[in-house]
Every structure is written in C-alpha cells, then in structure tokens.
Amino acid sequence: MSAAPKWIPPGIGLLQGLAVTGKNFIGSFFRADRMTTVQYPEERVTLSPNSRNIPFLVFDGGDPDTGLRCVACGICEKECPPQCIYIVLDRDENGKSLKRPKVFDIDASVCMNCGICAEVCPFDSIFMDQEYELSSADRFKGLLFDKATLAKSATYHAKIRPLEAAAVAERKRAEEAKRAAAQAAKEAKAKADAAKKAEAPPTISNARPAGGSASPPDLSPTRSGQESDPPKSTQPTAPEEAP
Amino acid sequence: MSFLFILAPLILLSALGAAALARPVHAALMLALSLAFVAVLYIALGADFIGLVQFLVYIGAVAILIVFGLLLTRPADEAAEAARSLRTQLFGLFCALPVAIVLLNVVASSPELDRAATAPQNLSVAAMGISLFTTHAAAVLAVGVMLTAVLVGAAMMIRDTDPEDLP
Amino acid sequence: MSPASAPTFLETLPLLPQRLIGDALRSLGIPEAFAAAAETAVAAIIVFSLFAGMFALLSLIERKVLARVQNRPGPNRVGPCGILQPVADGIKMLTKEDVVPVSADRLLHFLAPVLIVIPSILALGVLPYGREWVPVPATLGLLFFFAVGAMTELSIFLAGWASGSKFPLLGAMRAIAQMVSYELPLILSATAVVMLSGTLSLPEIVEKQGGWTLGFLPAWNLFTPWGLVAGSIFFIAGIAEANRCPFDLPEGESEIVAGHMTEYSGFKYALFFMGEYLGLFALSSLGITLFLGGWQAPLPGLGFVPSYVWFFLKLAVVIFLFLWIRATFPRVRMDQLMRFAWMFLIPVALLNLPSAAVWHYAGGGLMGWLACGPFLVLPYLALTIHFNRKLAQSTRTYRFAE
Predict the structure, then answer these.
(1) How far is B129 from chain C, CA to nearest CA, in Å?
(2) Among C270, C227, C266, C252, which residue's Cα sits nearest to residue C376?
(3) C266-300 pLDDT, tens per residue?
(4) Whether residue C115 sits in one domain with residue C68
(5) What domain range is C25 assigned to?
(6) Cβ <8 Å between C328 and A7
(7) Are residues C70 and C107 in the same domain?
(8) Is C15 part of any domain?
C-alpha cells in the first residue's frame, strides 16, 4: 500500500477541498435542486404508497359500530410481536358471540408498525395507516388507541391505498358472487329435490355449496377469540399491495 | 507614589498566599497574581514596556509552565497533606531563609536605591532598543543565539520517531 | 496621509458620542482627568457593544454559512430568515440552570468564564478601526495585545482544573499545549512587521501601509514576500489560537465532550463562547492591522468611503474565511498539531525574520523579491517535500483496529 503518490505541489490539496465546499456554498443559493430540506409543518413529502404506520380498523358503510369488518377472531392479537393489541369479543346476554369486538385497543407506544396484523387478518379488516402525527400530551391515555379511534371508513382506505383497497373490494365482490351462485344452486337443487320428492320417495342429499375452498366470512369465526385456536394461515390473507 | 502603598501590600499578600496555601494549584495561581501585580507596578512607575513584557513572560509563560507541570502531577490532595506537616514547613523555611537574606542584602547594598527618587530616565521603546543593540549588543546576540538553539532543540526533540505520525 | 487636512464628518462619526460627553463634562467644570477617563470609557463601551452585537450576529451567520455549505437553509424559524435566533439563544442560555459540580472549586469555577472574556475585550481596545477611530491609542499596542492574550491560557486552565472532572482537565491540557505552541509562530510573524515598521503602535503600522505600488496595488504588508509568509503563518496560528476548526482539539466534541467547557452550563457557557468569538474578532482585527492594511482602502480612488467601513469589510472577509475553513477541513490529531507548529511553522517563521531584513536592505521592489524569494520558497518546498516523502514511505499499520 506504500506506492509513492503522484507529487502535487504542496497546498493544492487544501485548495481543492476549499473549492468543493465553496462550490456547494455558492450553488446552494442558485440551484433549488441542491436544497433538499422540506420545511415540515408547511411542506410535506408525499408518502410512498407502501409507507405504513399505526394500524387501523376498516368499517363498511357509514356507521363504525355496525359496519366494522372485524369479527374479533383474535388472530392479530396472537400474531402481534410486541403484543400491543387487546381484543374482547362482544357477546349477547346468553353468552353467544356477536362476532364483533367489544374492546379493540392498540397501544401505540408499544406498536412497532411491522404490519403483521394487517397481513394475517383473514377478514380484510385491519390495515396499516399512513398517519404519523401521533404525538400526545398524555403518554399513557393519549397513546392507547381504542376502537372508536382506530375505526376508519373503507373510503379512507381507498384513499390512502387505492390499489390494495381495490383488490380487497374485487375479492369481496367475487366472494359475494360466488356465494350468490352457491345460494342459487342450492335453491335450484332444493327445488329439484322438492320436485323429485313429489314423484319419488325422498333421499337424503348432502348438498354442499360448490367451491367451498375459501371459507365464507360469515361462517368461519363461529369460535370466539378466547376459546379456540385460530384458523390455519392457509386462510386468505390481506392481498399484497401494489408493487 | 500613592500607588506603591496600594500595590505593595497586594504583592506581599499574594506572595504570602503563594507560600501559605496548601493546594499546589492555589499557590501557583497566587504566584501568578503576585507577578501580575508586579507588572502593574512597573506600568505605574512608567516602565510600560517592562510591565507588558513581565505580563507576557511571567503570566503567559512561567505561570503556564508551573500550572502545566501541576496538571501532570497527581494527586493534589497528597501534596496538600504534605504541605501541612511541620517537617515540610521547616524544610521550606530552611530553604527560603538564605535566599531571602541574600536578596535583601543585595537590595540594601544597591547604589540604585539613592537614585530611585529621581525622575525616570528616557523609557521609550526606541531608546531602549537603541541601547540594547549598541551598548548591549553582545549580550543580546548571545541570548538570541541561545534561545534559537533552544527552539531548534525543542523541534529536534519532537522529531518524527514514528513515520506514520507525520503531519 | 490623506490630502484633506481636517477629517470629514463621516470619518469622525464613531467618535461623536465620546466627544459630546467629554465636552459636556468639561463645560460643567469637571477636572480634565475625569473628563478624559469618561471619554475613554464611552469609547470602550461603543467598541464593546459593537463587537458584542457582531458576536450575536456571527453566531447566526456561522450556522447559516455552515448550513449553506451542506446545502441546508440553516436556522430560519425565529424571525425573518432566523434573524432573531441569537435572541432566542440568549434567552435560552439565561434561563438555564447553573450547574456547579460537587467536586468543583467553586470560586475558581466561577472566575474562569469571567477571566476568559476580559483579555479579548482589553485587546479590542487598542486596535485602530479607522483613520480617526482608535479607542485607546497606545504606543505599545502590539505588545499590549499579546500581553493580555497571555491571560486567556490561564483562564482556560482555571476552567479545566476547577471543574474537577476529567474531560475539562484533558481539554485544558490540550488547550494550553496548543496555545503555547502556536503563540510562538504568531508572535514571530508579527515581529517581522515590527522590524520593518519600526514601531509597536498599531495606528502607525497601518499608516505605514498607505500608498500604492505600480499605481494600483496597495502597499500592504501582505504584498511583500516576507509579509505573505508572515501573514499566512499568522492566519494559521491565529486559527489555532482561537481554537477554531481544524485546530479545535481543546473542544473536540467527538472526543472530550466540550473540553474545558464541559462542566459549564447556562450563561457561564455563553461567556466562554463570547470570549472565544471576541478573541476571534481581536485576532482577525490584528491580522488585518498588521498585514491587510488596516483601514486603508483596497483600490485608489476609494478614499471617500469612511476608513472604518473598509476595516469592517476586511474583517467580514477574514471571518468568512474562518467559516469556510471550518466547513472544509477535518480536525487534526494532537501530535500532528504539535508537530506542524514545531517542525513547520516555527522554522519558516524564524527564516522569515532574516528575509524581512534582506527586504529592508534590498530596498524592496523587484530586487527585494529576487533576494527574498530563495529564503521563502526553498524551505517551504524542502519541508513539504520532506514530509510528503516520509509519508509516502510509511506503511499505515492499524495497531488497535484489527
């Protein structure tokens, strides 16, 4: 490593250094593209579509209480690495599951914004938000987000992540169509059976809806969060976002 | 002459402090203070050049040298403890007494004492410089050569021992 | 010097307050000695408040310039373009808690920041800011400047020792070693000017630099071979004396927190900064006085502008140079710093003295350049080539990084 360096007149190296900083100094006054500072409260950078921060819950329609997609299955609660999610299933007076959360809390001071909850959710109900101004004067209450705070409409989701929301809506529509088709087939079958029964002695048919690979959203979470193991991760997950 | 009656006690007090204070750093600072008062005395007597040089040399070099030496010695508390013991104090007195006797003797026998009351001579820098480089030229040259040798020697002492540490 | 015998009104404008007060006191029958003292006090107050204001402004401008070099806008939130930032900083400093460590020597810990500001203010008093504007005309101005400058080192030591903790002590040791080493080339380069001017009075040194060579080049000391060398040495040593980057080892944030200022907070810390910046102003002003012709105009025909305007313009340029260098060069190592002073600056500064003598006897001009050239170019080339070759021969070993 001791190859003799090319001889340059002494002092030139210092002047070269000064020239570099001098160029930057002058250039910063004349070329706007040199200045990369964003004056934050007034200006903001546009977030990339995949940027994510705290999770939020999606509800359909206009009412966050009834339209919440969450069925309190508790998958996200179990998957959450820092365990910042707390869910209590809502039940009626007979102890029957109402398939909706009574309590859904996320401790924002613990959440590390990994997005695993959004990935594992089989009901497309929890997604990552892009809200980053979360500072609070109360470090305990102010950072514990409850159900009302977390609930945001499907239109908001479509606004911040149009590709992801469109994919979710597309899948929902397909499932709806499939369910309608299955229903129609079932009815047709029943009708045919009735017609057959009229002419022949009845036989028990175990008619099942066709295409039952994906468990319909209204069927699977009959088990409540506390008493059962979660469905396997072969369940449909939140679709990958746009590349 | 009124300033002498203000400055002389200050000089004596600070010198006494330099001798009496237990912590070495305090003693060194009192010494520097005493030297500074001497510089003020020079200036008050009209010898501006000597006063400023006293300041430059004794505060800027000698006091700094002492203080720098103190920085490299440790611990200060042990030295303070030693300074309180009777044996050390007696030894200090034993060393200081002969010096004091000699100095007082020199001052008392100096013929300059009689001339002190007369008006100051020409103390301008130009006159001093002319005097230095004519009547005292040999001494100035000798001192100059010596100091340059000291400088070169200092530079030699820190000459590169390890080539990687070059500037 | 100037063809006009009576100084113009603009020229004497900075002296107006002190004259008014002096005349008022005299007309009231106050003894002459007191009136003169009052005049000097007013002059000192004017200079001090001027430089204190410039200190506040520089603390903003420095951040702005450094930011621009790094393509940032710099502080711009307080007031238009951040112009009120120094006020905000001052309020912050004043309202901070004043912490004194338990192990500190309370009296000396308090004394150090006070003592560090005094020499800089004293030094600013003897400088000639304009043809008529010299706050305290002293015949030994240059010597006075260096004599009070000697106090800075002692107060830095006080700060380092009295804090009773290790980083301040390390910083003080570095600072003293550095300042003692660089005072030598500083004074030696100033000596060359004294040799050729034949005076220690700063206003006279400036007046000796009046006039023009070849009709357009100002006869400043910088435009002579010995002045060029002495000026460069003075500038480099001045950077080190003012503890500025790349010689800011005593503060070395990345190594020893803040050096001798580590255990200081609030307004005491601000006083350290003030002392440092006032020292920077004083050194730059002295450099301008010695080598850049002080208040002399840079081109013929510009004499109608008040002389102090030129002085402060030059000061602004020199200060900008300090900032530019700070923005460019990384900090040097302690041994490099010491070796640079003792192996390069002091030999060149010593050789510069005979060079100045030769210039004097050659009578200046082309003859002088020819006679002085070898004195300056040869040692410079010899030393730098010597160091470069040594550096090229050396293999870099990493003793502790493996």
Answers:
(1) 10
(2) C227
(3) 888 888 888 889 989 999 999 999 888 888 878 77
(4) no
(5) 10-74
(6) no
(7) no
(8) yes
pLDDT of residue B77: 63
Query: Helices (DSSP H) in C28-140: which residue ranges?
Result: 32-69, 85-95, 106-125
- Are the Cβ atoms of C71 and A34 closer than 8 angstroms? yes
Return the DSSP state at B85. S
- Domain contains C229: yes
Q: Which of C68, C327, C392 sits opposite A2 (nearest CB)?
A: C392
- Residue B63 region, left (φ>0) first, then alpha (ψ -120 to 50), else beta? alpha
The distance of Cα A240 from the centroid of its chain, to the nearest Å, equals: 10
- Whether residue C42 is found in the same domain as residue C120: no
Which residues numbered 22-51 in A keep a CB inside 8 Å of some CB on C? 22, 24-25, 27-29, 34-37
Task: Identify whether residues C245 and C365 lie together within a single domain.
Answer: yes
Considering the domain architecture, whether residues C44 and C142 belong to the same structural domain is answered as no
Indicate contact of A with C: 3+ CB pairs under 8 A.
yes
pTM: 0.76
Cα–Cα nearest to C101, from C291, C246, C277, C268: C268
Sheet with A85-91, edge to edge strand ranges: A85-91, A97-107, A144-145
Residue C143 falls inside a structural domain: yes
C130 plus C250 within the same structural domain: yes
Same domain, C231 and C170: yes
Counts of helices then strands in chain A (DSSP H, E):
6, 6
In B, minimum Cα distance to C171 occurs at B71
Whether residue C35 is found in the same domain as residue C171: no
The beta-carbon neighbor of C329 closest among A7, A10, A17 is A17
d(CA C211, CA C227): 16
Task: List pLDDT tens digits, range C73-129.
Answer: 888 888 788 888 888 988 988 888 888 888 888 888 888 888 888 888 888 888 888
Instruction: Tell if the CB–CB gap between C392 and A10 is shorter than 8 Å.
Output: no
- Residue among B60, B148, B159 minimizing CB distance to C150: B60
